[in-house]
## 1
Amino acid sequence: MDDDERDVVAALRRGDEATFRRLIERYRPGMLWLARRYVRDRATAEEVVQETWLAVIQGIDRFEERSSFKTWLFRILANRAKTRGQREGRSVPFSALDDPDSEQHAVDPDRFLSSGPRAGWWSSPPAPWGIPEDHLAIRELLDCIRMTIDDLPPRQRTVIALRDIDGWSADEVSDALEISDGNQRVLLHRARSKVRTTCGPDDDGSGA
Amino acid sequence: MRLRRDLTCRELVELVTDYFEGALPARVRRRFERHIGKCDGCTAYLEQMRVTIELTSRLRTEDVPSEALEPLLVAFRDWHADGA
Ligand SMILES: [Zn+2]
């Protein structure tokens, strides 16, 4: 545990409200993404996050500093979200799309030549994709990305949101989701590929 | 010799995240970069993936709504008032 973390725990114990508030602001987005992996909808995820903070308030005096505060926080959250998901009769969602072992293509195979000396090379190469300067065009793109991420299978959604929106490291994400580094990368690659295909300039219709 | 031949575009597009993450073995990384050096299509593809990541990072999460924050601050205050 680093000093910053030790300070955080000490501040919470003595009732420092500004610190508590800062922690909520820092961790709530990631908590919501993670909770949504286990429960039915966003509203339930919100409830789980609120319950988790209440558990933190009541448990901080017993927190044993063997793990980091963040690890502890997300463990409470995951346990609560899992329990809640089970009560909803929801087994941990696991579709073929979400299974890192199932084979899926980042790009529609039809985009590549299937025979000849250049088999496996682009038959119709992708076009460059510049970020538009127009505000409205950017807003539309961001809306598309947000909706695409929302519709992803749960584990892909959680991985891309924590990595690419919230800026978590690869290790933090694999730990929180209890998956291997390799699986984390597969899920991230699938999620990014889906966003590129859906919102990018040359939709190749690969839907994978 | 399978290992020495060039990567195809179809193979390369599946390795892009591993490449960004620095997770490719050195030998594969060299083949990846050699391919990129001579393929405009994959250069554009790589750039598209960079743009995807950059745009996604702009989806900043909204501020904590006060109906979520306030009850927690009240609970925090109460807990410490009781414990004092
Ligand atoms: Zn290529």
Note: Chain B touches chain A at residues 8-11, 13-14, 16-18, 21, 23, 39-42, 44-45, 47-49, 51-61, 63-64, 68-69, 71-73, 75-77, 79-80, 84 (CB under 8 Å).
## 2
Amino acid sequence: MVSKSKVLPKGISAAEFDKAVRELRAIVGDEHVLVDEEKLAPYRKIMMPVSEAQHELSASVMPDGVEQIQRVMKVANKYRVPVYPISTGKNLGYGSAAPVQRGQIVMDLRRMNRIIEVDAELCTALVEPGVTYQQLYDYLQEHKLPLWFSCPAPSAIAGPVGNMVDRGVGYTPYGEHFMFSCGMEVVLADGQVLRTGMGAMENSNTWQVFKWGYGPTLDGIFTQSNFGVVTKMGMWLMPAPPDFRPFCIQYPNETDITKIVEALRPLRIAMVIPNAVVIAHTLWEAPCTPVKRADYHTGPGAISDEAVKKIQADHNIGAWNVYAGLYGTKETNDANWKIIEAVAAGTGGKIITQEASKGSKALEYRFDLMKGKPNLGEFGLYNWRGGGGSIWFAPVSQAKGAETLKQMQMAKTILAKYGFDYVGEFIVGWRDMHHVIDLLYDRSKPEEMEKAYACYDELLHTFAKEGYGMYRANTAFAEKVAATYGPVKRDVEKRLKKALDPNNIIAPGRCGISL
Amino acid sequence: MYARRLAVCLGSVATLVVAGGAQAAWRDGGEVYDKVCRYCHEANVGPVLKGRALPTEYIQRVVRMGNRAMPAFRPSEIDDATLADVARRVSGSAAVAQE
Ligand SMILES: Cc1cc2nc3c(=O)[nH]c(=O)nc-3n(C[C@H](O)[C@H](O)[C@H](O)COP(=O)(O)OP(=O)(O)OC[C@H]3O[C@@H](n4cnc5c(N)ncnc54)[C@H](O)[C@@H]3O)c2cc1C
């Protein structure tokens, strides 16, 4: 059997590759190894502004189970072929399902989609990598379990393991997903199976309830890294509150971001507002409402501030739109609601309640996300510029008004220089904010792709100069982003890589880590 | 008060540990449409597909290749047979009633 794949892992001959593929087929079954170019098409689709060739895979292997993964590791070590694990593979705008480097074999874990356990008393779940948020949602509904989880916007098609492993975020009080994970199972490059935390003890029943275990806590090194293949993850679920009150507060001016952040931070830190608050700019809300860009701006260049003002007026969208919720009983929410009303009144914000939200698709999908109800409403973003190009620029900011305004202005200026709009939001952790900007461009136009690449590059380096680092980054910029974090951290990562994966077979290059 | 209400709300299931463990599979193409496609294609995000008699091969191709911002879907997510069923249903469906 001759390989039909034109793409090969670096330094591997076609003959050796064929041998490796044959061994992989023997492990997972013929139909679960793909090498035909046509069959691999879904893995090639990316939104980043680089050519598909740069991230083209050589094959896909789809194991079902830990034991198969252990055997795949053996083959990878034997032939020195790198494998790039994905879970649900919907890392859209961060690299999608394509590997970080050309020629890697994607290890697609989507078939491993078992919800292994849900403990309704302790409010925990143990899931495999292929489980989607939609699947988990349906499962909880079906079993009439009043438990909520936190999910990212592409929730219907993405999943908790892949999202957590890339340290993604969601919108309920459990929005910082890694923080609310508890216990992992990891297949290491040498085939050993590590269970983190309490899971390391054979007969422990506390794996999903106590994160730390004894000695160093290792979970963190398996996120945004390539030290192992995560095959199970524990996660905490939230009891559905008797009363949930989502709301939006709209503000009229772009510079209002300062007072918004100053007013909200104390409420967030004190957990009066318990969830990951979002402060979304007009141009994030507009496409999801939906509003058409062409109705307000034609021709090249970024949309003008006047046009943005007009959108706000025409469609009842704020310059900033704050999304948050109260999660409690009627009594506690009534009490806290008074605080929210006072804060909105004191800062010149207009409150929109659930009842008043009808008719806006943007408000609808946000309110659903704040209770962990899957949807894909945020994909409306891509109708703004069209052409399917997207790359997330996502620096971390202190939750301080002056800082957020400074970051917003810096980003807006650089984006405009390249003709792109500021489509941004701040997702409030406790003391930090993820400043997430969707750099939208038309991927069907080579010149726009080049500009988008150059724009991200300038954003990255300008922000780094000011001491602002990324919370997460796409695979095309992994190396450059890693470089902004300095040499010592990278050296330690390299030493860990050498110790855990001396043949450099798990996702070399991911987050800039390679031998 | 809060604790009591919560206890009431979880009371009926309090002893339940659900051990699933079975591999999930799509029931049919209709379920895929409802749980994936519909979120965009009946929500002003992507174009409406129903009632247009779109060719089945075209639907299957777009699902596998993606199209501009529409993500591509792998066989590990939607197997070929189920995808064919999705395409058949969408292609043969009546138009979606306007809200
Ligand atoms: C419109 C839109 C809105 C978005 N909103 C959000 C949002 O609100 N929050 C957010 O966090 N993201 C968001 N994203 C980005 C992204 O789509 C999600 O984070 C998504 O959850 C990631 O894809 P996934 O869950 O399928 O993970 P995967 O793609 O499966 O995994 C992500 C990466 O983690 C690594 N990995 C995955 N599984 C394993 C494993 N088992 N072992 C070792 N390494 C592994 C791989 O490097 C992989 O590429 C958004 C994207 C779009 C297009």
Note: The pocket of flavin-adenine dinucleotide is lined by residues A 85-95, 109, 129, 152-154, 158-159, 161-163, 165-166, 168-169, 229-230, 378-379, 381, 507, 510 (CB under 6 Å).
